[in-house]
Design goal:
This protein is α+β, with helices and mostly antiparallel strands and 534 residues long. The protein is 37% helix and 20% strand.
Length: 534
Amino acid sequence: MPDRLLKKLFLLLFLFLVASCVPVKKHNAGLGTEFSIKELHTDVDFTYKKLKKLHPNLYQYISKKQLDEKFDSLKNSIAVPMHAKRFYAALTPVVSEVRQAHISNSFPDRRFTKKERKILKKLNQDFYELDVAYADNGLWVTRTGKYDSILLGSQVVALGLETVPDILKRYRKTFPNEGYNVAFQNKFISKNFVGLFRKHEGFKDSISVLFMQGDSVFPKHFKRYLRDSSEVRKPAIDSAKVAKSKKPTKEEKAAAKLKRKQRKRDHRKFGHIARGELFTRNFKFLDSSAKIGYLNIRSWSNGPYQKFYRESFAKLDSAKTENLIIDLRDNTGGRMDEVDKLYSYLTDAEYVLAKPAKVNTRLPYIKGFYGPESGVFSVLSETIVLPYFVIHNLLKSRKTDGQLYFRYGYAKKSKPNTLNFKGRVFVLINGASFSASSIFASKLHGMKRAVFIGEETGGAYNGTVAGHFKIITLPNTKLNYRIGLMQIETPHSQQPDGFGIIPDFQVIPTVKDVKENRDPELEKALKLIRNEVD
């Protein structure tokens, strides 16, 4: 590497480290700062300029004229100074008009000192253990964590003084659906409800929630407590009343050690999710004769995956399984290489998973370097690999008919896996089947390889802008927007544009299904497999 380039890289690293060391007190003190009309106008212009520069398909769902008018109207409406959070509430709905759901956002939030973070690690808040499902325009509790299981199946009516319908309406303005379907927002909000509450309402020591169970409405007050507090945990066992446990033998110790090792290997292979003790990748047979396989993929991420698919499809092959159900519900995306790996087990012919990606830059990988979320070590690693990625990106990008494209590995012909499954495939989808899940579903649908059951996918059939991302920080208010850099499409498309994969059999869970913990989509798949008529 030339000395001049090396010096520039280390200078950039030094400047980043200096800029990232903003004192916590100074940052927090500036959170309530109001910005002038001129500063706010500058941030509006900056946002639109970056969108036009980086986003490869900005006007897919809205014309340039319409989007110009939206941004001009926003500027004209800003007549008084605003603080960052209020400006966020004004700007984000305009950005959402692009209808590209990978555009995410954040605003400056309170930071904590090292001492405060240490204290917070010792505290717990049962509210953040709740999981909810969206059904019949409401939110219903499906998981409570370790305590208050009585809340299961109850409806969330209000948080503080704000009703759930008002909260949902407010949150929907902060991120878009993909294209013209309306399934994604509701499913995404319910899937990430407590996290979105934390993002928008800030750090809370206590949260008042109003629930409804049947005709009974009751409040629940969640407060932070020490993780080992005896007030919320089960009473300790009286050691005087319990016989002392025997000292384990060498054989028992060895067996326990082997069990721990196997558990660690399983956690890696299946992608352990600590919250709720779940796994990202799951496989089982749904019948004693092994004629129905069930593959549940919660995301295309979280640990290595090759061994899991190899072993799962080896089991299907050995059992001569005739039917495979693939569950992509609530799978909001992840790695395309994992999608490619799974698809290779579902075809017996050479295939191309996706077309070359439309881009606005020859260096899509590099654009994401040195973002506001980069830590010291990531900056160091990015600096080291920068020359390699510059060469790699330049070799992979080329212009065709005036449009710049990036050829990643999935745009090449690939061979099917030798263990490819030849039986019938059924895919369960819903509004939170998004991004890489929609790419996978679109490929299966385009090849007429599967029967789809559930709800329209949240991701669009004709592709999505994702792949690699650039996080921009507005110069004054410091709002962040994450912008996708690649238009990723399978070789298949449908008209009209802007909709997801439409299921062959629409099945949408009701409140009764949620309360009774029923799975109507899976039940429908099993009925189809068994040729049972409704």
